[in-house]
Amino acid sequence: MNTGSDDPGEVVVADKAGADEEQPEQGLGSRAPGFIKDRRALQLSWQVGVFLVGLAVVAAGVVMLPLPGPGWAVIFGGMMIWATEFVWAQLVLRWTKRKVTAAAQRALDPRVRRRNIALTVIGLVIIGVLTAIYVSKFGFVLPWKI
Fold first, then answer.
1. Contact yes or no for 72/65 (Cβ under 8 A)
2. Whose CA is closest to 75, among 96, 91, 57?
3. How many CB atoms lie within 10 A of CB 62?
4. What is the residue-level pLDDT of the chain in tens, covering all 146 positions?
5. What's the rounded Cα separation, in Å, for the pair 80 and 86?
6. How is 19-74 classified by DSSP, letter by letter?
């Protein structure tokens, strides 16, 4: 599976000249040390440990979503922990990377940037007008008691 395409069976051949600049992407599968892969019981306990650590990190990220903290970053960190051992997590991370890269490219489009800036300015003007109306009617008094 190529990270640049959703088409099955598509293969990318690395260029030898560019190999010094970037590290080649590692294949799918476990990244556990060899002595762990050689023993079935040890590999199973390794996978359970990786799963539990990843689950704890993802759970902490989910808790951080409504609370202050980098929720999404922690969730993706947990997915990266899972991706060291599980193929499904590696595929999810590749798909996520493609989607985030595409969204970033769309956001850098000049027309989209102009639209986003215009919408932000309009929103700030509306908030300013509403604040001015509130202050002119009620003064600098908050609508709730602290």
1. yes
2. 57
3. 14
4. 445 555 555 444 444 444 444 454 566 767 767 777 777 777 888 888 889 999 999 999 999 988 888 888 899 899 889 888 888 888 988 998 899 899 888 888 888 889 989 999 999 999 999 999 988 988 887 767 76
5. 10
6. GTTSPPPP-SS----HHHHT-HHHHHHHHHHHHHHHHHHHHHHHHHTTSSS-HHHH
